Structures are given as C-alpha cells and as structure tokens.
Amino acid sequence: MTDNPLDLRRPGPPGKGSDLRTDPDHTVDDDPVDDDYDQSSDWSDWMLPTDVDPDEPKAPPGFRQVGRNYAPARPDQRGTGRVIATLGAVFAVVIIVLLVVLESLPDTDEQSGPAPSTRLPAPLTGMVHAVPTTSTAPHVIADCPHKRSTALSSGADPGDTTSAVSVIFAFQYAYYVQRSATKAREYVTADAKVPPAQHIQEGIDSVPVGTRYCATVVPTSPGRWQVQIREQWPSKTPELLAALIITTATEPDGTATITAISAAP
C-alpha cells in the first residue's frame, strides 16, 4: 500500500521480495478496484472507528461525535436545549416582575387601622349676625333692608315701645303710613322737645299719599341715636330727606319713649 491515503486499492500481500509488476504469473484485472467495494458508501464511513472504547468520554452538550472528534450538533439535536433555555429566561423575568409589583404595593397592615378622625372647628359663640331681608310692603323703598343689630338697624316696620330702636320705628310708621300726628305723639313724653301735634300733621299732609320710606338707626351714645330718613315719592326716585338726632328714655314700667327730636348737625 502506498502512503497516499486516497489510494484505496487493496492488493493481496505480496511475496517477500517479489514485484507484482514483473511477476509473469500474476494477472492484473482491467478494473483495479476490488469487486467487494461498495462505491455508494460515504467517505466519512471509512473514518468511523471499528472499535469504540466504552470508557471514552461522550460528546458534550451541543456537539456530536465524529470519529474521535466533535462537531456541532445538528439543529434537530440543539432545539430541545434552546427551548429549555428560553423557558428558563422567561420564568426568571416573570419572577422579577412579580417581586417588583409586590414591593410597590402599599402595606395593608398599616392601613387597616381606624382612620384618624377629623377635628371639627368649635362652634362660634357670642356672635349673632342678622341676615338682612327686603320687604315687599307698598310703603317700603325697594332697596331698604330689614336689619336689627346693636350697631345698625334699618327698615320700615310698624315698631312698638319694647325698646328704643322699636319706638323710633313706631314714630316713623305713624308719620308715613298711618299719617296721624296724634298717633305719632303717643310715642313721645308730655314734656318732650318735639313739635306739637298740629305742626306734625302739617308736615304729614305735605307728603303725597303713597310715599315710600326707609329709616336707618345708628347709636351714637346711650339713649342717643342718629336717624336717616329716605323718601320716595310716587313716580320719583328715592332721595335722602333728613338726618335726625333722636333721644330716648325708658319709663319705670319698661316702656321706651322719645324725649327729643332735632336735626343732625
């Protein structure tokens, strides 16, 4: 046999010292290839070992054994490993996402306790605010608020003798609505510095019937009040008529009376 590995001819063993090329008894076939040789066999089959050592290490994962060497595994041999690796990576990502979500959730144990109560402000005491209202009575100016407070009172109500402010409203009601000087004099003392009933009636008659009015009362000192009177004659606009100073007193029986009426300075 020659040293050429591709020279696959299999001649029989020659005699010692004989030369087949010069031996007259040896005949050479026209076809030098052995009749038993299968030309359809793969060349790699010639490289397979005929004796496999059971102790020889197996091919590592991802490789296949070719002779005594290793070659990368075919795609059908590596598919299972890739699937397993992919599933492992997906599972790891899911675990990480779950941990992040759980960490971001609020602690329900801390929030399960009773909610802190809201302190309501204490109710205000000692402060009374009178809400002004307007009257629809025909003798009241449209923008005249009905108000009562210690600092200011306004309106055109009938009044009475229960307080100093009420007796002042009663006098104005007798003048503009009842149009009676006699009735107006009932709210003043006998010695009051107030014109006599005759002069008061002359003033009443000078005012047209149907005149509207509004009185505003402001205290200036104990028993002393500044009173502003606004008039609105029929088909006219309201206007300020006068500013008066009225003094009051309280009788022994608690009745409030008027002791003086004068023009404001």
TrEMBL record:
Chain intervals for the UniProt region annotation (Disordered): 1-77
Compositionally biased spans, kind Acidic residues: 30-39
InterPro entries xrefs: DUF8176
Segments traversing the membrane: 83-102
Biased amino acid composition, Basic and acidic residues: 1-10, 18-29
Keywords: Membrane, Transmembrane, Transmembrane helix
Pfam families, sorted: DUF8176
Domain DUF8176 residue range list: 142-261
Keyword Nucleotidyltransferase: no
Protein name: DUF8176 domain-containing protein
Protein source organism: Nocardia mangyaensis
